[in-house]
Design brief:
Elements lengths: L1 H8 L6 H18 L3 E5 L5 H8 L3 E6 L2 H9 L4 E3 L9 E6 L9 H13 L1 E12 L1 H8 L1 E7 L2 E10 L2 E12 L2 E12 L11 E9 L8 E8 L2
Length: about 230
Amino acid sequence: MGLELYGKIEPLLGFEEQKKALYEIFLHKLLDLGIKRVLDIGCGSGAFMKLLAQNGLEAVGIDLSEQMVQRAKESGLEAYCVDVCAFEGRFECATAVFDVINYLADDEVGPFLRCVADKLEDGGYFLCDINTLLGFEEVAQGSLVLDHLDRFVAVEAEFLDGKLLTDLYLFEREGECYTKQSDRIIQYYHEVQSLKGYGLELVDIDFVELYAQEPDKALLTFQKIT
């Protein structure tokens, strides 16, 4: 339930400005590459897909959260609740925006990237972002408490041995009482070198200062090896 709970509290965390900035960076990269049709992996509620549509790009989204896919569909977007390996179709480009790769454990990266490569046309591109070490150690790690009307949120994140362990707590008022939801999500630090291969060639890296004055994210551009 971790990502489902995170989806509920994310709008309260105050990251919208940074997300929009990252979306714009991805958009301009896609436009520079001349991309017209995109598979957005981990599309969530479809915010990035909306931006693509507003700029003349066709987008299809997939996500493992039924709740998020339903929200995307309610916005008039084409989205499916399916794993990328089970999805059918070929695209000139695929994207995985805002931490999607961070949620993959080391032994999941290779199979994921091979499936992505399989969904690309010959010479197609895959764009994704990962946290830098600074992004985990200096930005993501720490505590956050928010009191928002009838909802109270607490987040505790600790970076240990290449993993960011984040405990989430949500208290929601129901009459005179509060209900509590809690869960843990895990993100993983990946060296760029560990993502190479798997049918994809790394052709570009853009370092991004999203939260800090030094690069806390890296935008990676891969091209399918033919």
